[in-house]
């Protein structure tokens, strides 16, 4: 009775409440309130993130690096095709470049959360420069073999394990949270503008001087980027406190991502799209070489058509007022159907038009998923979350490259394109049904002038 009386005593109850309140929490950190730009921006503020001097300098360096990187990638794929005459070998090159992310990508996120993103990028750009200049020397001296390209592609992929999540997260340090969504869209625009310029440059170089100069250009561009990173004003950056070294950080990041619908469903759709929909180098090389017989110039043209559409999509994404799960589902479904349609086109003109529309839809999907995942994750764990995102984005291509290469060689380029679009479209339909069954999305079919229209709308705001 005495012990029961003590347990009920007000002083004990106050002590108990104090102990519970001050006990360390083992729960995963919630998403912090974000001072983010909401609503549709006026036209004059379409590129508002560029008003930040550091981000403006970063964007210039990023455009240079991405353009040179696209130039090297197109030249690299075509060089392998020339050396081997095999679409499967091109797929192996893609796999070598992205396999390290599949194997070690999550560990890259842990490293990015622990160290300075700017310092990490200086190191990665220096390593990229060494690898590109080494490949240039082999190509220019005429001693390059396919296995050299495979090995350097694999080494480049190892460096990307750190570089890519660091590149994603450093944007927050440059612009802060308020303009983060706009900055992500601008980054995507830069990537796609580079994807339009780089393949065109690669096509000219391949027709005139060969692949070697393309690799040399990329090496020099990496050195220039190092100089631009050194010019960033660190006193104007929103520095993120590094995560302390602790056990279980990798598992913590995975459990955190799994617990949030706005992270896990985009990651699932990105994984499927990366394996099947992002294997364009393999498919377009086959269309240029086997279907339309237009050579390296046509290969560069096809890549540029995708990039033109993607640039339009990136610019449209800067005008997007909000991003929800339904945005992700609709965009990946539309991309898959458009890519499937491209596989059925009988002429270069129609095929090129379809590639532009594929570029628009795919970029809207990619920027929406990137933004939703970043905005849904706590800043202290964002490096690990983004490493998971990058893992499935790049690692999926490591699986998809050889897979699509085999499909193209066994069944033809047209079948490969149909498969690359049909599977993501099917995945979007399955996710839409799952979310509808869980009460997070509502599927509606309405008749407009006797034509059925399917719409997806949120049933509740939670997780959408």
Explained architecture:
InterPro entries: MFS_dom, MFS_trans_sf, TM_effector. The structure is a single chain. With 464 residues, the chain is mainly alpha-helical. It has a single domain, classed as Growth Hormone, Chain: A. Helix content is 74%, strand content 3%. The protein is built from 16 helices and two strands. It has helices spanning 2-8, 10-22, 53-84, 87-114, 117-140, 146-175, 180-208, 212-231, 249-258, 261-276, 280-291, 295-317, 325-342, 348-375, 382-411, 413-437, and strands at residues 441-448, 451-458. A hairpin with a 2-residue loop joins strand 1 (441-448) and strand 2 (451-458). The radius of gyration is 24 Å and the shape is globular. The relative contact order is 0.15. The model is unreliable at 1-39 and 460-464 (pLDDT under 50).
Number of helices: 16
Shape field: globular
Count structural domains: 1
- Helical fraction: over 70%
Largest sheet, described in full? 2 strands, antiparallel
Parts with pLDDT < 50 across at least 5 consecutive residues:
1-39, 460-464
Please tally the β strands and state the result. 2
- As a percent range, the share of strand residues is under 5%
One letter per element, helices H and strands E, the order comes to HHHHHHHHHHHHHHHHEE
Radius of gyration: 24 Å
- The CATH superfamily name is MFS general substrate transporter like domains
Physical arrangement of strands within the biggest beta sheet = 1-2
